[in-house]
Design a protein that fits this description.
Helix 6 crosses helix 8 and helix 7 packs across helix 8. Helices cover 38% and strands 14% of the residues. The longest helix has 18 residues. It is of the alpha/beta class. A five-stranded mixed sheet has the order 3-2-1-4-5, sandwiched between helices. It has a single domain, classed as Nucleotidyltransferase, domain 5, CATH 3.30.420.10.
C-alpha cells in the first residue's frame, strides 16, 4: 500500500551547527506518492520565524542567505508556536487528521531531510505526531545517481529544471536554492528525475 502522502519539508537554520541552531524559515508542501499536489500552491506553507535581531546567526548564513534573515526581522514573521500551529493545520486539512496506525501517516520528504527532521523534532513535535517514522531522503538517490550510475547531479538549482520535472511548481524567476520554499519544490523535481532515469519501470 502506498503512502497517503509525502510532506515535503525544508528549513533554513541560523547555523550549520544543528545542536544549537534555530529555525529561520520553514516550508511545507504535500504530494501523493506519484508526486501530484494534494492542494493548490496557495495552501503551501512558507514561514519566516520572528527574531528581534541577527545575534546568534552564523557568518555563513549572513553571507549566503541574508534575505532570509531580513524576512525574520519583519513584522510579518511568526513565532515558533504559531508556525507549529500552521504546519499542523496544513497537514490535517490537506492529508487528514492524525492517524492511529503509523502506516496511514504521511512521510516527511526532502533532501538531507534528517537535518530538518532533527530541528522539527525539537521545535515542532506536533508535526512528528502526524508523520510516519520513515523519511524519504532524495539525497540517497543523488548519491546512487553519482556513485553507481557515474553521472553528474541534475541541475535542481535551476527554475527550468524544476518546472520541467515538477509541473505543479510555484516559483518566481528570481527565486534560488537555500530558500526553503524553492528547495522543497526542487526536491520533488529531483525525485521525479531519478524515477525516470535511475529505476527500470516495474510493470504489474
Amino acid at each position: 500500500m502506498s503512502a497517503p502522502g509525502y510532506l515535503w519539508l525544508d528549513a533554513e537554520f541560523s547555523s550549520l551547527e544543528l545542536e544549537t541552531a534555530e529555525i529561520l524559515q520553514v516550508s511545507m508542501m504535500a504530494t501523493d506518492a506519484k508526486l501530484n499536489r494534494l492542494a493548490p500552491p496557495e495552501k503551501d506553507v512558507n514561514l519566516f520565524i520572528k527574531r528581534a535581531d541577527d545575534r546568534g546567526i552564523s557568518p555563513w548564513v549572513k553571507e549566503h542567505i541574508p534575505h532570509i534573515v531580513r524576512e525574520c526581522l519583519k513584522p510579518s514573521a511568526v513565532t515558533l508556536s504559531d508556525a507549529e500551529v500552521k504546519l499542523c493545520r496544513y497537514i490535517d486539512e490537506v492529508v487528514g487528521p492524525i492517524q492511529r496506525e503509523t502506516d496511514a501517516r504521511p512521510l516527511i520528504a526532502g533532501n538531507s531531510v534528517h537535518n530538518d527532521w532533527m530541528l522539527v523534532r525539537k521545535f515542532f513535535p506536533g508535526v512528528l505526531h502526524r508523520a510516519h517514522y520513515r523519511l524519504l531522503d532524495v539525497s540517497t538517490l543523488k548519491t546512487q545517481w553519482m556513485d553507481w550510475a557515474g553521472r553528474e547531479a541534475p541541475p535542481k538549482e535551476t527554475v527550468e529544471f524544476i518546472r520541467k520535472w515538477f509541473p505543479g511548481a510555484s516559483l518566481k524567476d528570481d527565486m534560488a536554492e537555500h530558500d526553503a520554499y524553492f528547495d522543497i519544490q526542487a526536491s520533488v523535481a529531483e525525485l521525479a528525475f531519478y524515477r525516470a532515469h535511475l529505476f527500470q519501470r516495474i510493470e504489474a
